[in-house]
Amino acid sequence: MHQNRPYDLEYIRNQFPALALSVNSYPAAFFDGPGGTQVPQRVLDAVNDYLIYSNANAGGKFLTSHNSDLVIKEARKALADFLGARPDEIAFGQNMTTLNYQLALALTRCPGQRREIVITEIDHEANRGPWLALKERGYKIREVRMDTETCTIDMDDYRNKLSGDTFLVALNYASNGVGTINSVEEMISLAHQAGAITVIDAVHYALHGPIDVKKIAADYLLCSAYKFFGPHIGIIYGKKALFSELPAYRLRTQSGLAPNLIETGTLNHEGIAGASEAVEFIADLGRRFGPSDSGDGLSGRKDMTERRRHVLSGMKAMEQYERPLAEKMLDELSSIQGVRVYGPPRDYPRTSTISFTIEGKRADRVASELGQKGLFVWDGHFYAIRLVEKLDLQESGGLIRAGLCPYNTEQEVDRLLEEIKRLAK
Ligand SMILES: Cc1ncc(COP(=O)(O)O)c(C=O)c1O
């Protein structure tokens, strides 16, 4: 049996300057990771260094422009390693939502008879709104049901919604609302059997599990660097054969080749530099704390770069650290009278993002009170508004969401649980 090297929480926390913040003399405990993670020093340095040593527009004949081109080229490689893609399948944009709108607009220009788009009730609005907007252009939207008891997608309903008219299926890799990890590989396979293309929102999942776009056979997959230790930029993966043909709206001065064809205007170069370094940070966690020998099944694999192997080990190390903390939170929250936890059944795949309500207390009040004690949690619908509507919580203020990150401590979890017990009394 292989062993993980010990997870050095102190080392990890020391990488994040923001963790030193305090509120009313309480140390800040960041349970807001699903809304955006904190940023390690090496990512801050990469952003800073870009602006000192490489700050120029692309394609010039002088030093800083060469450097800039190099930073972006390297970033495509890093993100390709993160997602199991090829560098020319990775494009950057303002954020996931904007990239998805661009994608939706471009796809409407693809010729074809199919006029139905399948979306789900569990998705964040960013993977619903751009498709719902296409109703104006004559597309019919079919919405897959979420089982409100289990907060999982109703697979029978999904199968029924697919047909020979399905043009596209927009799926959620993991729910930022309640943490459910959906069976995307199976769902993509079913979509492909129906002849549809697939767009996967991996924004929430990206910090919580390894992504292999080839294995799941995604056509398009989107994520956001600020959810995995990077700055605020969006990333889109497009399968080469499809991406190269995407009729994206662009200036005539812009390259029509993938991946550049969707990258309108000047990119956020310093953000891209930071996103690249965020991948390096995860790879570094893998090198330091991931499985130490061939027992991880990755050593010696020739079909991936060394950095990708380390990224996968880093993901595993984070997941193994967070899992028992998440289980403790689930157990203890569920045992507090008046607290109701929402999410998938215990044996169902899930992230370490936990949402709940407290009887008789609005979520915003709870979040404010916790915030005063330095406990940062989100409240409301987190743009997973359809899910919150389905759970019938919209009127009462929505959910309270505490998400675990690799830098959260057990003491922080205990502090949070203590305060919730007090508020639930
Ligand atoms: C699951 C999910 N999808 C999409 C988004 C939107 O991402 P962005 O802010 O990059 O547009 C978020 C952000 O919270 C999210 O959690």
Provide keyphrases for this structure.
425 residues, alpha/beta, Aspartate Aminotransferase, domain 1, Aspartate Aminotransferase, domain 2, seven-stranded mixed beta sheet, four-stranded antiparallel beta sheet, 38% helix, globular, binds pyridoxal-5'-phosphate
Task: Describe this structure as you would to a colleague.
The chain is 38% helix and 16% strand. The protein contains 14 helices and 17 strands. The chain has helices at 9-14, 41-53, 63-83, 96-107, 129-132, 155-161, 184-193, 213-216, 240-243, 269-289, 306-335, 363-372, 385-390, 410-424, and strands spanning 22-23, 26-27, 29-30, 90-93, 116-120, 140-144, 146-147, 152-153, 166-172, 197-201, 220-224, 234-238, 339-342, 353-358, 375-376, 378-380, 399-403. The strands form 5 sheets. A 7-stranded mixed β-sheet has the order 4-12-11-10-9-5-6, sandwiched between helices. A 4-stranded antiparallel β-sheet has the order 13-14-17-16, covered by helices on one side. The chain has a two-stranded antiparallel ribbon with strand order 1-2. A hairpin with a 4-residue loop joins strand 7 (146-147) and strand 8. Helix 2 (41-53) packs antiparallel against helix 10 (269-289). The site of pyridoxal-5'-phosphate has 12 residues, from helix 4. Residues 95-97, 124, 126, 176, 201, 203-204, 224, 234, 383 line the site of pyridoxal-5'-phosphate (PLP).
